[in-house]
């Protein structure tokens, strides 16, 4: 079995990727800013990153933040991976990064390009939004009596554990370039997802759909972040909410 480094290995996705890889018998190192012995800020790089990559065959790059710095972090990681002789770099991206002019998406697309031009063997998987993210957004919006939603926007959320399983599978294989997107089983209006959340949580909120402005909103409204032809995910949003209610998460 191979030695695999998972960046962002304590996060929502990275933790599950790590668990799956270890269950499959791989030696896995977890890299994050606070996870010892490989506590590294990727934006800074340095000797700690070199140490983490020593003897590593494959890197699964899950570390990411909408607060900025992804491109710098990826550049540091790639340079150190080349120096360490890493064979395979696997990157998780987002469906629609090349179609929706949203700041975070632009950064993810830029990292995809860095990965493809890295000189390393590489694989990129794009996935739709996780159920967890949709829930976080809805919980934030429901803090006030009126739940205001972006009018005309749909989503296609996917179960994060399914994406983790696919990433682990790709990490164990040969570099494959850009692989087929992975999307959830249903394209849903954001309002239907909101009402499912309200029903599951027992909250009462007035739901209002508000038209927004800007190129990013137009991109989301046009469905640039959806992949109905790649609805390969199995778990629905309602099943996710039910599992949370049972204490499964």
TrEMBL record:
Pfam families cross-referenced by the UniProt entry: NAD_binding_10
Name this protein carries in UniProt: Nucleoside-diphosphate sugar epimerase
All copies of domain NAD(P)-binding, residue ranges: 8-132
Top-level taxon of the source organism: Bacteria
Signal peptide (from-to): none
InterPro entries in the record: Ergot_Alk_Oxidoreductase, NAD(P)-bd_dom, NAD(P)-bd_dom_sf
Originating species: Streptomyces griseoruber
């Amino acid at each position: 079995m191979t030695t695999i480094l998972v960046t962002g290995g304590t996060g929502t996705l990275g933790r599950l990727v790590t668990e799956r890889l270890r269950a499959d018998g791989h030696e896995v190192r977890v890299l994050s800013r606070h996870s010892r012995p490989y506590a590294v800020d990727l934006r800074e790089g340095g000797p700690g990153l070199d140490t983490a990559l020593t003897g590593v065959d494959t890197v699964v790059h899950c570390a990411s933040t909408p607060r900025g710095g992804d491109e710098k972090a990826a550049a540091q990681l790639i340079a150190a991976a080349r120096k360490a002789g890493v064979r395979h770099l696997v990157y998780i991206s987002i469906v629609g990064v090349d179609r929706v002019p949203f700041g975070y998406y632009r950064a993810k697309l830029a990292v995809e390009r860095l990965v493809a031009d890295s000189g390393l063997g590489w694989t990129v998987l794009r996935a739709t939004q996780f159920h967890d993210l949709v829930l976080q957004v809805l919980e934030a919006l429901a803090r006030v009596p009126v739940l205001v939603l972006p009018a005309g926007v749909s989503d296609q959320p996917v179960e994060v554990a399914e994406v983790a399983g696919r990433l682990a599978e790709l990490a164990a294989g040969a570099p494959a370039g850009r692989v087929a997107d992975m999307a959830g089983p249903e394209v849903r209006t954001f309002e239907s997802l909101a009402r499912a959340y309200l029903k599951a949580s027992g909250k009462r909120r007035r739901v209002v759909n508000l038209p927004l402005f800007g190129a990013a909103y137009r991109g989301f409204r046009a469905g640039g972040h959806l992949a109905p032809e790649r609805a390969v995910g199995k778990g629905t949003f309602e099943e996710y909410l039910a599992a949370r209610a049972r204490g499964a998460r």
